[in-house]
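yo

u said u wanted the structure for the complex thing, so here. seqs first:
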Amino acid sequence: MSWLDLAPCAAHRRLQPGQALFRQGDAAAAVYLLEMGRISLTRCLTDGSTVALHTARPGETFAEAALFSPTYHCDAVAEVASRVAVLPKDRLLATLVADADAGLALARLLAGQVRSLRTRLELRNIRSAPERLLSWLALQAEGDPPVVQLDRPWLQIAQEIGLTPEAVYRATAALQRNGRIRRSSTMVELLPRT
Amino acid sequence: MSWLDLAPCAAHRRLQPGQALFRQGDAAAAVYLLEMGRISLTRCLTDGSTVALHTARPGETFAEAALFSPTYHCDAVAEVASRVAVLPKDRLLATLVADADAGLALARLLAGQVRSLRTRLELRNIRSAPERLLSWLALQAEGDPPVVQLDRPWLQIAQEIGLTPEAVYRATAALQRNGRIRRSSTMVELLPRT
DNA sequence: CGAAACGTTGACCGTTTTCAATTACAGTGG
DNA sequence: CCACTGTAATTGAAAACGGTCAACGTTTCG
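structre next:
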């Protein structure tokens, strides 16, 4: 069960760089799933300045709160050429009230996101780059001995854990030096604490 | 509508420092609302080390995912003397399947948390302490001119935005010096960009 | 084969952390 | 009413750490 299951035949929409998907105050008509590109959600303040609320990346849904609000509370603007799946609010709501199970499924989805976000936030409390990376690896690891299969470039991992790529490279080097991890091109093995 | 509305007559439980509320693998029996104290959620790894997943603070619910899992996936241990409201899973689920509106209410609650967590995460991407603090203040501010009423010590604010208290003091001093904010003991006024 | 992205390392710099000391302040009990 | 205790607020100085910039090697893929 996922968002897409709730709205099987979703429409799609393409956006040019700089183009707005919706603006603060617009009638909340849909929830979106980003298929490709990058969309930034920002709130404009009374004094004209702007605050970044979130940057959506491929695979993410955003504006879920639109389900419960008559209008959007922030601007959504494509940073690069992007494509989104449009999940119409009215159809989603109809499904949800008609089918209690769908409501539960949605709650499960959101509860999972809450858990994941809390974890990412907690990771950021670790100041030391090597320790932060190590904790991230430990959470990703599976099997015995614990191993992480890297399915995307370090570049993106660095972004996710809030470090520059250089800091990540240095951290991996340091962890290897200290015998905490062992690496081959595409996988990382966690070694037991000495 | 809130978690408590879903389980009106919740039981309470007190915990000593170091006492566990539940352990990884225990049958998931309830969702919890922390009333006082501090409870840390950690995952134990195969090698015996441990990773912090979240630190619950008063007013927060945690273990929401228990609703959708037969067992808990982490340990919950009181860091200090704490009290929690116990929201039994079976009663919650019964309410949710019986009443589609309750499911929607839960989804709304969770969607709000997702939004808030994403915002906090995005804040952490701002490296500069003064800029991060300023963005946080801008998000908290209300009214015209925008004003923030501080309802808790800077100590806690520092913790929330991921800075040391000293860094926050220095940031407020710098922002005042640059004419971006004005402070009196319990409130902060945001000044328009010069 | 060449271009573009990713990976890696070095040096330097700036900011934040850390540690320490001081002040302000609220609550407590004598 | 006042010393007393603990917490919050503040400031200083030094060190550590990650960011930034730059150069270069490596891999991938058209």
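DSSP finds six helices and eleven strands in chain A. Residues 127, 153-155, 165-166, 169-170, 173 of chain A lie near DNA strand C (CB under 10 Å from a C1').
cya
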